[in-house]
Design brief:
about 35% helix; alpha/beta; Rossmann fold; seven-stranded mixed β-sheet
């Protein structure tokens, strides 16, 4: 089984915020492959289905972002044999809106949800898909926490966010097939990304 986890905050007030893009990508993947996230276990909404001949569990932790590790550690222990079978999808302020990056491991950067996960599972050696959320108006001297809790602008949604969610689900399909390297080759290329 492969486990794909999207990070976000529970509650309708956060649904369209930059910080919740992980949830949105999971929802789109679930819709595309007819997986229902109706279960609730390990402090997450979960759903399981068959994708590309593989059993896939999708999960959206409900612990709030800064405690994502509480849920992710339980899910990883219960449903994966190795951390390489788990992909975490989350927002990244260091990437322009709509740009995606896939890595087999790496640092947590400034992301508190990822810091919580790494602290809880004791390793950063798991694949991740970073989804850029930095708009043109972002000023890094202002509050990062406030910024990521804002919605994308209408222009960002129209120009890049929707199409990038589709590209992210394409990349997740390659992960589901066991081809993370191909996903990296295809989706990390600059010419496959939205313009900055």
């Amino acid at each position: 089984m492969k486990l794909i986890i999207g990070l976000g905050n529970p509650g309708s007030e956060y649904a369209k915020t930059r910080h919740n893009i992980g949830f949105r990508v999971i929802d789109r993947f679930a819709e595309r492959f007819r997986i229902t996230l109706a279960g609730h276990e390990k402090d997450a909404f979960v759903g399981t289905g068959r994708v590309a001949g593989e059993t896939i569990m999708l999960a959206k932790p409900q612990t709030f972002m800064n405690r994502s590790g509480d849920s992710v550690a339980k899910l990883a222990r219960s449903y994966t044999e190795a951390l390489g079978e788990m992909l975490v999808v989350y927002d990244d302020i260091d990437l322009p809106a709509g740009r995606i990056r896939i890595r087999p491991s790496g640092s947590t950067g400034t992301h508190n949800g990822m810091r919580s996960i790494v602290a809880s599972i004791g390793s950063d050696a798991f694949p991740r898909l970073r989804f850029g959320v930095r708009g043109e108006t972002y000023d890094d001297t202002s509050g990062l926490a406030d910024y990521v809790l804002q919605n994308f602008t209408t222009e960002e949604e129209t120009a890049v966010v929707g199409s990038s969610i589709e590209r992210a689900t394409d990349a997740m399909l390659l992960f589901a097939r066991g081809d993370l390297k191909r996903a990296m080759n295809e989706f990390n290329k600059t010419d496959s990304q939205p313009p900055e």
